[in-house]
Amino acid sequence: MFKSWFAPAPRYRMQLAHQIIDISPNQTVLQSALLHGVNIPHGCKAGGCGMCKCRLISGKVEQIIENTAKLTATELNSGIIFACCSVAKTDLRVEIITNSVTMSTSRDQAPARV
Questions:
Q1: Residue 1 lies in a domain
Q2: 2Fe-2S ferredoxin-type domain: from which residue to which, for each copy (predicted)?
């Protein structure tokens, strides 16, 4: 009976930019990526700017901020998510999107804002 109260929250793994990243419970895709040195372009971190669009190749996420109105029907149907508002519910495979082009980034090669 008490076992479920004390059971650790599930941890998931995410494949992103040729890396496997552990995702802590309730941590967004963006938070996990940044903690592991993978830069996802971002601005507001609240779903308002749309800079953190990513393509969910496999897995399931929960949007913690309802922002689907900013995504077109085509984007929704092709698996586009906002990394800043997405929490993993399963293991994930994600691609970073910049200027409508899929890209891979690493610590050595990352877009920057000045």
A1: no
A2: 12-100
